[in-house]
Specification:
77% of the residues lie in helices and 1% in strands. It contains 25 helices and 2 strands. The longest helix has 35 residues.
């Protein structure tokens, strides 16, 4: 009886006493969620409430443009990504072997870079209109009609060309995982190619397509460079205008809260649509899909359908940038070298911290088995859904308050003023990267740890290994490749991130993304080209690893 009571007491103490893994997981979750909570707090406690003014003036326009962009870009990318994925999965046609990988390359080109390239390519002094004037003998713009470039429609085209690979990647994986038996039955019943796509392939791949479209819509909402360059007023540009131009933090937080609600609704609808879908496949009846050959006109139509998105999303922007880069003398400019150093340092550190934090939290939740950390784990993914401008509001003001109090304390103790340690350096920028892309690292760590057989860590613990020792000796060697891929993806996203960097960077602190935006905003594409090409090269490395992992 005494032994039983002693064991019960030990179990109770073990449950009550917080272990470092649970505490660490809770701290990481609070850091990731704090900016979002801060935005909501500022929205409900503004210094000057301009909500009625926003409702009666600019907010309907911001909301309308945002919804139109989300809907149009989501629809276009769903069509492009699904059709191209279906073609390269189901058919042999000219160029298929390289097009299935080339269709991923637009991921390496940020949408705002594509916007700068498109305007330079199609504007009055660009090669297209110049060639038309020379060909037909036109002298001025009054002699011919040419569509306006900086419009909402052009923004939809640029965003769709840059973001469709998200849908393509997930749809292609979904089509490849399907069994060929269903298609053989449909073919035997006389169903044609279009019918097999609409009745068999599309319904089975719908959850993956919906997930890809949801990511595309969230990236569309987060975009600032493209819509700002095309003068399309969205909720994101509204945050910049109300905060930086009008100097009203409360109004910016209120717009940000509308943006958050929009994102939460989008994510909820996507999850509901996937939860209601149920698809089952028998492992015994699963057989590979037999690809059919398309020859003649049909083969070249399939080739054109796949090559056009690749040309629009990658070839044209890179060609325009290269044409300017060869003419630019800005490759050795001190500003470019500093921007490159800042990008590599803050992006690299943020990527390492993000991956280590994601691994620590996932491992801590799995190890502790407690309910609260397990509930917070999926919630921390909201940082990826929250646009960078929203996170900037939630990070800057609390950090500025902490920064001032910390500086006052150091001044009292040492007699010297250290200045702004957190907001006066790249710390705030790095923190925004960690919060924004934490979901990538967390998801990769969770999936990788889930593939490790439970018998291995249990055997290590039974031999006296500590939790940390088991992580180092058993888990890390087995999940090293997955963590490396997550590290690369987070780093590339940090390199391309623009809205949060613009709002949080210290005075005079440039990254490659902010340098491209600053030069392009002044219509100086030649000086923007070196930094833009550098971003693209970094993105190409990530796309290469992504393509290799999806073979």
């Amino acid at each position: 009886m005494s032994d039983a009571l002693t064991q019960l007491s030990r179990n109770i103490q073990r449950r009550i006493r917080p272990d470092p893994w649970s505490v660490g997981a809770l701290v990481i979750a609070l850091v990731v969620l704090a900016p979002v909570v801060a935005v909501v707090w500022f929205a409900f406690h503004p210094t000057e409430n301009i909500w009625p003014h926003l409702l009666s003036t600019t907010l309907p326009r911001y909301m309308g443009n945002t919804l139109v962009l989300m809907g149009a870009v989501g629809l276009v990318t769903a069509m492009i990504g699904t059709v191209t994925a279906w073609l390269v999965t189901m058919y042999h046609f000219p160029g298929r072997s390289w097009l299935q990988w080339a269709l991923l390359l637009p991921l390496a080109v940020p949408a705002y870079v594509g916007a700068y390239a498109l305007v330079d390519f199609l504007e009055y002094a660009g090669p297209v209109q110049t060639g038309l004037r020379n060909l037909f003998g036109w002298e001025t713009s009054r002699d011919y009609w040419f569509p306006q470039i900086r419009t909402r429609g052009a923004a939809i085209v640029v965003l769709s060309a840059a973001l469709y690979p998200y849908v393509y990647l997930l749809a292609r994986a979904a089509f490849r995982e399907q069994s060929g038996a269903g298609y053989e039955v449909a073919r035997a019943l006389g169903v044609g190619p279009v019918g097999r796509f609409l009745r068999v392939g599309l319904p089975l791949a719908r959850p993956a397509i919906a997930a890809g479209v949801a990511v595309v819509m969230m990236e569309t909402v987060n975009d600032f460079g493209t819509v700002d360059y095309f003068a399309v007023q969205t909720l994101t540009t509204g945050i910049f205008s109300v905060w930086l131009q009008a100097g009203n933090l409360g109004g910016a937080a209120q717009i940000a809260s509308v943006l958050l609600i929009l994102i939460v609704v989008l994510v909820t609808l996507e999850k509901i649509s996937r939860r209601r879908s149920r698809f089952y496949s028998s492992a015994r009846s699963r057989r590979p899909i037999m690809m059919q050959s398309l020859s003649g006109v049909r083969g070249w139509i399939a080739f054109a359908a796949c090559v056009l998105p690749f040309v629009a999303g990658f070839v044209v922007p890179v060609a325009v940038l290269l044409s300017h880069a060869f003419e630019s003398s800005n490759w050795l400019a001190p500003g470019l070298r500093r921007a490159l150093l800042h990008t590599l340092s803050v992006g690299g550190i943020a990527a390492v911290v993000t991956v280590l934090g994601g691994l620590f939290m996932v491992y801590g939740v799995r190890l502790s088995g407690r309910r609260l950390p397990a509930l917070l784990l999926p919630v921390t993914a909201i940082g990826y859904a929250a646009p960078g401008a929203v996170l900037a509001i939630g990070i800057l003001i609390p950090l500025a308050t902490i920064d001032n109090r910390l500086a006052d304390a150091i001044l009292v103790v040492t007699g010297t003023d250290p200045g702004l340690i957190l907001t006066g350096t790249a710390f705030a920028v790095g923190l925004s990267y960690v919060v924004r892309f934490f979901a990538i690292a967390q998801g990769a760590a969770d999936a990788a740890l889930g593939r490790v057989p439970q018998s291995l860590p249990l055997a290590a613990r039974s031999l006296g290994r500590t939790a940390g020792g088991t992580l180092r000796a058993i888990h890390l060697p087995l999940i090293r490749a997955s963590l490396g891929s997550a590290l690369l993806l987070v780093f590339v996203d940090c390199v391309k991130e623009l809205p949060a960097t613009l709002l949080l960077r210290p005075f005079g602190y440039d990254t490659l993304a902010t340098r491209v935006h600053a030069k392009a905003s002044l219509e100086n594409i030649a000086d923007a080209a070196p930094a833009a090409l550098t971003i693209t090269l970094v993105g190409l490395v990530a796309v290469g690893f992504l393509a290799r992992s999806n073979r």
